[in-house]
Specification:
Length: about 230
């Protein structure tokens, strides 16, 4: 692992409300031969001056365009977290990314084969929406106590739940092997074994943590899983 020459690209697609910094703690733990690239969704962080995209097909087309801008002649893999996992499925099953993927990592997302209750969250009143987001384990208590900052914080999350609410599974398959990482305590991970039905290659499963945002307490564990799988592809 002392070879610093990049040998594989890893594109990371964040959860609802996530941004280019969502996986920063993961980067120093990855094999130095992996080139990690977090894709920024419109309307946040480095793209904060752009409007949020409110149409699902436009959203995934925008994600595909940005991934393809970064694509090199290296092999590549993709990791999606929650909303990002559904987007990964569509990008790969619809062959929207240049080249052939070597591996897909699916985090905190269960079955895509049926509509999920979380797809209706965007229609909830503010207090109920905040409660559901807090239940997932992703909102710092300090943010909840600051109404003005909380309103700003929730804007991209609300926008992404509009996208998630439009998601509809289309028959297809991921054309490579995959790894699913999830918490058995997470309602959003329900039916996770269904990924084996929509992946052409093998799927291995890892249980981790106690809520939807298990990543916050398991950066090193997730990095080890990624390194182990991608080392075989380099």
């Amino acid at each position: 692992m002392s070879d610093d020459i990049k040998r594989i690209q890893l594109f990371l697609l964040p959860f609802a409300g996530g941004s280019s910094v969502s996986f920063n703690k993961l980067f120093p733990l990855l094999d130095t031969r992996i080139e990690p690239i977090t894709i920024e969704y419109a309307g946040r962080a480095t793209r904060r001056k752009e409007p949020f995209i409110m149409n699902y097909y436009d959203f995934i087309s925008d994600v595909a365009e940005h991934i393809n801008e970064y694509r090199s002649n290296l092999p590549y893999s993709v990791l999606g977290y929650s909303l990002g996992s559904a987007v990964v499925y569509d990008l790969l099953s619809r062959r929207m990314i240049k080249g052939f993927p070597t591996h897909a990592f699916i985090c905190a997302r269960g079955s895509l084969l049926n509509n999920l209750s979380s797809q209706s969250f965007v229609g909830l009143p503010d207090n109920d929406f905040i409660f559901m987001m807090s239940k997932l384990g992703g909102i710092d208590e300090r943010i909840l106590k600051n109404k003005r900052f909380l309103d700003i914080y929730l804007r991209p999350i609300r926008a992404d739940y509009i996208i998630w609410g439009q998601y509809k599974y289309q028959q297809g398959s991921i054309p490579c092997s995959a790894t699913a990482i999830y918490s058995p305590e997470d309602e959003a991970a329900k039916g996770v074994k269904d990924w084996s039905k929509i992946v052409d290659g093998t799927v291995d499963y890892y249980e981790m943590g106690e809520n939807h945002f298990f990543l916050n307490n398991h950066w090193r564990d997730v990095a080890e899983i990624i390194n182990t799988h991608l080392e075989k592809k380099i």
